[in-house]
C-alpha cells in the first residue's frame, strides 16, 4: 500500500499533466481521429482492393510458367527501362496476382496474361489519408509520424493524470451525466487497451519519423552516410555482374522450397532487369514470426546468392523489420484483423470522447462543439460518398472526401450554432442514416457485375454491419438494475 | 487441441483472470487481505496459462501480443456487464464562452518548443541513450529510431505542462549544443 501511495502522482503533477494532455489532445484531435479511423479500416486493405476492382476469377496458386509470362508481358506492355520489376503472388487476403514497377501495375490471371491495370482510387485515397493525410509525401509522413509520437506522449500524460487508475478500473457510469459518461468511456477504453495503443503509436511514430530521424542521426554519424546506415540495419544488396538471362522461376521456387519449406512467398522482384546487375529476390513469410518476410536472393539462372538475415540477423534488424506487421495487424489471420479493427475503433472513440469531455466539463455549447460533433459523423459519410462517387461515377475520391468533410464541417461551424431550435441530434442521426443508405445503394449498384460473388456479398454485409454500429444505442443493451 | 479450441480456452482464461482481478480489487476493502492475495496470484496464474496455451500453437512472439491485446475487449465485456445506468435528465447551465488559460504568445512558444525543438532534443537524447545502452552499431541505430517518437512525445507533454517555459527551453538549449559537441 505504501508503495502504491508513493507511486501515486502528486496533485500538482496530476493537474499539470492533465492540462498538457488536454492541450495536445485538443490541438491534434481532428487529425488523430482521421488517422485512427482510416487506420482501423486499412487493416482490411486487401479486401477493399478486392472489393473495389473486379478482376478475373480468384485463385490461390499460379504456375512458374505463368509468372514468367506475366513478367515478360509487363515488360512488353510498358516498353521502357525498368529499375525493379515486382510480381506479387496471390494470397488468401487477395486471391489474384499482380505485376508492377514504380509507375504501372497490372492484374494477372491464372495463365499469366495481363487482364487490367490496377485501378483502386478509393483504397488509395484511404491509404493516403492514413499515411499522409493527403498532404505532399514527405510532409504528410512527418506529420503522421508526429501524431504517433504525440500519442505516446498522450499515453504517458493520460496515465500520470489518472491517480485512480486501479480504483476505477471497472467503473462505467452511463446515462444522465454526459461528462461522467464520456470520462468513464474514455478512461476504461484507454486503460484496458494501453498495450495495443502503445505498440501502434510507437510503430507508427517509428515508421513515420524514420526519414527525419535518419537525417538527424546521419548528422551525428561522421563515418556513415544515410545509405550505409540503412544497409547496416536492413542488410546489403548483393553485387552481381554477369550477363542477364531470362529468370529461371522454376529453379528459384525449387530451391526456395528446399530451403524454407514452410515459408509463404509474398512477392518476387527482378532487380535491374536486362542489365548485367540483374538478380532475383523472393520475399517469403516464415510462419509465426512478426518480421515482414525473409528475402532470398538468386542469380537469373536460379543459383542461390544469399538471404538477407531478416529472420535471424541482429535483434535490431528483426525489430525494425517487424514494425509493419505489428502496426497493420497482418499476422495471425482474420482473428487478428478483427481484433485490430475493434481496438482501432476504440482508439477512434477515445479521441472523440476526449474532446467531448473537454467541452462537457466546461458546459460549453458553441459552434466549435457543434462542428466537432458534425466532423465526427461527417467523416463516415464523406468516406462512403467518396466511394460512391469514385466507384460508380468515376469522380475524384480525394476531392469528394474533402468536399463533404470540410464543406459540411464549415457549414456547421458557420450556421448551426445560431439555429437554436434545430435539433442537432437529429442532424447527426441524418448523417449516419445518409451514410448507411448511400453505402447500401453503392453495394447493390457495384455488386452485380463483380466476379468474386459470394465473397463480395459477405464483405458487403460486414461493411453494412460496421456502419450500422453508430445507430445502436448501446445503453439500451445493458440491463437496468 | 486445434487452434480454435486453444483460442477459446485462452480467451476463457483471460476472462477468468480479469474476473479474479476484479474480485481482488473488491477484497481490498474490509481487511480481507488473504483473499486479495489469493485472487491476485490466481489471476497471474491464469495469465501465464493463457500465454502458454497460445504459445503452443502460435509461437512465443504472437502469444505475448495475443495476451496483451485480447485482454482489452474481454475486460470491456466484463465492465459493460457491470455498468450502471441512470436515465434522469441532467441539466446544467450552459455557456458559449471558454476562458483562455494562456496568452497567444505563450501558446505559440509552447508550439515552437513542443514541435521542432522537442524533436531535435529527442533525437539527441535518443542517440545518447542508444550509445550508452547498446554496443552493436545496427542495434544502436534501431534503438535510436524507436526512442525518437517516445522521447518526443514525453518532451512535448513536459513542455506543454510547464507554466514556466524557461525550464524546458534551458534544458533543450543545453542538450542540443552538448550533443553537437560531444556526439
From TrEMBL, chain A:
Keyword set includes Transmembrane helix: yes
Keyword Ribonucleoprotein: no
Superkingdom, taxonomy of origin: Bacteria
Keyword entries, A-Z: Membrane, Transmembrane, Transmembrane helix
InterPro entries: PepSY-ass_TM
Pfam families for the chain: PepSY_TM
Signal peptide span: none
Regions crossing the membrane: 21-44, 139-161, 196-217, 338-359, 371-393, 399-417, 429-449, 455-474
PANTHER family, A to Z: IRON-REGULATED INNER MEMBRANE PROTEIN-RELATED, PEPSY DOMAIN-CONTAINING PROTEIN
Protein known as: PepSY-associated TM helix domain-containing protein
Source organism phylogeny: Bacteria, Pseudomonadati, Pseudomonadota, Gammaproteobacteria, Lysobacterales
TrEMBL record, chain B:
Transmembrane portions of the chain: 6-22, 34-54, 66-85, 109-129, 141-160
UniProt entry keywords in alphabetical sequence: Membrane, Transmembrane, Transmembrane helix
Top-level lineage group: Bacteria
Name this protein carries in UniProt: Uncharacterized protein
Source organism: Marinicella sediminis
Amino acid at each position: 500500500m505504501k508503495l502504491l501511495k508513493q507511486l501515486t502522482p502528486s496533485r500538482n503533477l496530476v493537474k499539470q499533466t492533465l492540462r498538457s494532455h488536454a492541450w495536445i489532445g485538443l490541438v491534434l484531435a481532428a487529425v488523430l481521429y482521421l488517422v485512427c479511423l482510416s487506420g482501423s479500416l486499412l487493416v482490411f486493405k486487401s479486401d477493399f482492393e478486392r472489393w473495389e476492382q473486379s478482376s478475373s476469377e480468384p485463385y490461390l496458386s499460379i504456375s512458374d510458367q505463368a509468372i514468367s509470362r506475366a513478367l515478360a508481358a509487363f515488360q512488353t506492355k510498358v516498353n521502357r527501362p525498368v529499375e525493379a520489376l515486382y510480381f506479387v503472388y496471390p494470397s488468401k487476403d487477395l486471391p489474384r496476382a499482380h505485376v508492377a514497377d514504380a509507375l504501372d501495375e497490372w492484374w494477372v490471371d491464372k495463365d499469366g496474361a495481363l487482364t487490367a491495370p490496377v485501378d483502386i482510387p478509393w483504397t488509395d485515397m484511404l491509404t493516403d489519408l492514413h499515411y499522409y493525410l493527403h498532404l505532399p509525401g514527405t510532409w504528410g509522413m512527418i506529420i503522421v509520424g508526429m501524431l504517433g509520437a504525440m500519442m505516446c506522449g498522450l499515453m504517458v500524460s493520460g496515465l500520470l493524470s489518472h491517480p485512480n487508475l486501479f480504483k476505477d478500473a471497472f467503473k462505467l457510469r452511463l446515462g444522465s451525466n454526459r461528462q461522467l459518461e464520456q470520462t468513464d468511456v474514455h478512461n476504461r477504453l484507454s486503460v484496458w487497451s494501453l498495450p495495443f495503443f502503445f505498440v501502434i503509436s510507437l510503430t507508427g511514430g517509428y515508421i513515420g519519423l524514420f526519414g527525419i530521424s535518419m537525417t538527424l542521426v546521419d548528422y551525428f554519424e561522421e563515418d556513415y552516410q544515410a545509405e550505409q546506415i540503412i544497409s547496416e540495419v536492413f542488410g546489403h544488396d548483393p553485387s552481381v555482374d554477369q550477363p542477364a538471362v531470362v529468370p529461371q522461376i522454376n529453379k528459384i521456387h525449387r530451391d526456395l522450397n528446399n530451403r524454407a519449406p514452410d515459408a509463404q512467398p509474398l512477392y518476387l522482384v527482378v532487380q535491374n532487369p536486362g542489365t548485367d546487375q540483374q538478380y532475383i529476390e523472393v520475399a517469403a513469410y516464415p510462419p509465426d514470426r512478426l518480421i515482414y518476410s525473409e528475402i532470398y536472393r538468386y542469380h537469373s539462372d536460379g543459383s542461390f546468392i544469399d538471404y538477407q538475415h531478416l529472420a535471424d540477423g541482429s535483434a535490431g534488424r528483426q525489430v525494425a523489420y517487424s514494425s509493419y506487421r505489428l502496426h497493420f495487424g497482418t499476422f495471425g489471420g482474420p482473428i487478428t484483423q478483427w481484433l485490430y479493427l475493434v481496438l482501432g475503433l476504440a482508439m477512434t472513440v477515445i479521441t472523440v470522447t476526449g474532446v467531448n469531455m473537454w467541452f462537457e466539463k466546461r458546459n460549453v455549447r458553441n459552434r466549435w462543439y457543434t462542428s466537432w460533433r458534425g466532423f465526427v459523423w461527417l467523416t463516415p459519410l464523406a468516406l462512403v460518398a467518396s466511394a460512391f462517387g469514385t466507384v460508380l461515377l468515376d469522380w475524384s475520391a480525394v476531392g469528394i472526401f474533402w468536399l463533404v468533410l470540410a464543406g459540411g464541417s464549415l457549414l456547421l461551424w458557420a450556421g448551426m450554432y445560431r439555429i437554436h431550435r434545430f435539433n442537432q441530434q437529429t442532424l447527426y442521426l441524418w448523417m449516419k442514416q445518409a451514410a448507411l443508405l448511400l453505402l447500401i445503394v453503392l453495394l447493390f449498384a457495384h455488386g452485380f457485375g463483380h466476379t468474386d460473388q459470394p465473397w463480395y456479398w459477405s464483405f458487403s454485409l460486414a461493411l453494412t454491419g460496421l456502419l450500422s454500429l453508430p445507430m445502436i444505442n448501446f445503453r439500451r443493451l445493458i440491463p437496468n438494475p | 487441441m486445434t487452434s480454435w479450441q486453444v483460442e477459446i480456452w485462452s480467451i476463457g482464461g483471460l476472462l477468468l483472470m480479469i474476473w479474479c482481478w476484479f474480485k481482488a480489487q473488491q477484497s481490498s476493502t474490509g481487511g480481507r487481505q488473504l483473499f486479495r492475495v489469493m485472487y491476485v496470484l490466481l489471476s497471474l496464474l491464469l495469465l501465464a496459462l493463457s500465454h502458454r496455451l497460445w504459445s503452443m500453437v502460435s509461437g512465443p512472439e504472437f502469444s505475448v501480443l495475443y495476451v496483451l491485446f485480447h485482454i482489452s475487449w474481454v475486460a470491456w465485456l466484463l465492465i459493460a456487464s457491470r455498468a450502471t445506468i441512470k436515465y434522469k435528465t441532467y441539466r446544467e447551465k450552459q455557456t458559449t464562452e471558454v476562458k483562455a488559460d494562456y496568452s497567444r504568445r505563450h501558446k505559440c512558444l509552447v508550439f515552437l518548443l513542443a514541435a521542432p525543438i522537442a524533436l531535435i532534443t529527442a533525437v539527441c537524447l535518443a542517440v545518447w541513450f542508444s550509445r550508452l545502452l547498446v554496443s552493436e552499431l545496427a542495434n544502436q541505430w534501431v534503438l535510436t529510431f524507436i526512442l525518437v517518437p517516445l522521447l518526443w512525445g514525453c518532451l512535448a507533454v513536459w513542455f506543454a505542462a510547464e507554466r514556466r517555459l524557461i525550464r524546458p527551453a534551458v534544458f533543450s538549449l543545453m542538450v542540443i549544443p552538448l550533443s553537437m559537441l560531444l556526439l
